[in-house]
Amino acid sequence: MNPVNIDAPENDTYINGRRTPDPASSSINTEQVRPPMSESSFTNMLPPDSGEHTFTPLIEPAKLKQEMPISGIAEQTVLEGRDEIKNILLKTDPRLLVVVGPCSIHDEKAALAYAEKLRRLKTDVSGTLCIVMRAYFEKPRTNIGWKGLLNDPCLNGSCDMSEGLRRARQLLLDISEMGLPVATEMLDPSTPAYLSDLVSWTAIGARTTESQTHREMASGLPMPVGFKNSTDGSLSAALNAIKAASMPQSFPGVSPYGRTCIVRTAGNPWGHVVLRGGKQPNYHTEDLEVARRELKEKGLADILMIDCSHGNSRKDYRKQANVLKDVLAQRTRGNSAIIGLMLESNLHAGNQPLSGDLSELKYGVSITDACISWDETQDLLLYADRVLRTKG
Ligand SMILES: O=C[C@H](O)[C@H](O)COP(=O)(O)O
Ligand SMILES: C=C(OP(=O)(O)O)C(=O)O
């Protein structure tokens, strides 16, 4: 837990537990700053070889929201999006939920251009599909790599998370004001306090579904939450997560005013599984039968969402179309558990490495997982709409 003293001026930095006043606002020589008792105790707790740790306070969630308040239109989009998704989960709305968009957002201009195209398409297919845009700002990495706009918005390792939070919130406001509801992955437990009021659907990823911390976080989220199956393909962690997150939980967390405190949540009844494949894809008929049996054995609702990317496409974006078509066919043949799909899509197909020279980055191309292009996305969603209209 971050030991930062919330009463300290916002721009002070902590080095090995010692407060260092913001040089811009103070002429005190940092060598002369004697840490108060609690801070020196913390310093003593660090192992002698721990190197240099620094602690830079972030803006309080309540302050960020005050600076960048949700507008009436944005709030309406978010709440309507949540209600539509809940009705799909209850099966009172027969449409298919489609969470579609970039693997990660690194360029807001491209994200808004994508959102504008999706907004127009959403209207055309609204009779059969409930479209929600992926706006992912936090990337869980298998080992190392860029961890998303929130962590490193300047893409250069400077990790200016204050800027990342502002830019993520601004983009969420802009997309919601266009009337397009948004989905994201919540990775760091401190993120929801800054952004959750602008999100209609949340994923807990394959690498964190088994984590108690993430289940606790999900139990307090105000929107439906999809739990991915584990990276090896097993489902049990996701099923246990749905149960854990549906219950009231008590855990240490951070208040809207940035203070560590005991959080008590009410439980989130809207948890469901997202099948994303693992060592093998898990979207075929027999996989869905197994998943439905496991849901039943656990006493959970007969609800499945299928991620066409990740393990289900064997990380080959060109296979996402096959997955979508196969799952649609299963649904039109009568598999009533299938309530939604996920696609990783960007303005342009494929992906590109994040190298040192940012001027080399191609516009509208993912810097994390490879995505299908906008043109292919549009064709696929129009295809899904046709299939669902004719075959139900
Ligand atoms: O969707 C994103 C990635 O699959 C996930 O962040 C893991 O990526 P990595 O294996 O490239 O680290
Ligand atoms: C990281 C993601 O998925 P998963 O957790 O399934 O790997 C993602 O959807 O961006």
UniProtKB/TrEMBL annotation:
Keyword Lipoprotein recorded: no
Alphabetically ordered keywords of this record: Amino-acid biosynthesis, Aromatic amino acid biosynthesis, Transferase
Ranges of residues in domain DAHP synthetase I/KDSA: 87-380
Enzyme Commission code(s) on record: 2.5.1.54
GO terms assigned for molecular function: 3-deoxy-7-phosphoheptulonate synthase activity; identical protein binding
GO cellular component assignments: cytoplasm
Chain residue ranges for the region called Disordered: 1-54
EC class: transferase
Catalytic activity: D-erythrose 4-phosphate + phosphoenolpyruvate + H2O = 7-phospho-2-dehydro-3-deoxy-D-arabino-heptonate + phosphate
Pathway named in the protein's UniProt entry: Metabolic intermediate biosynthesis; chorismate biosynthesis; chorismate from D-erythrose 4-phosphate and phosphoenolpyruvate: step 1/7
Biased composition (Polar residues): 23-44
Matches recorded under InterPro entries: Aldolase_TIM, DAHP1/KDSA, DAHP_synth_1
Coiled coil: none
Function: Stereospecific condensation of phosphoenolpyruvate (PEP) and D-erythrose-4-phosphate (E4P) giving rise to 3-deoxy-D-arabino-heptulosonate-7-phosphate (DAHP).
Family membership: Belongs to the class-I DAHP synthase family.
Protein name: Phospho-2-dehydro-3-deoxyheptonate aldolase
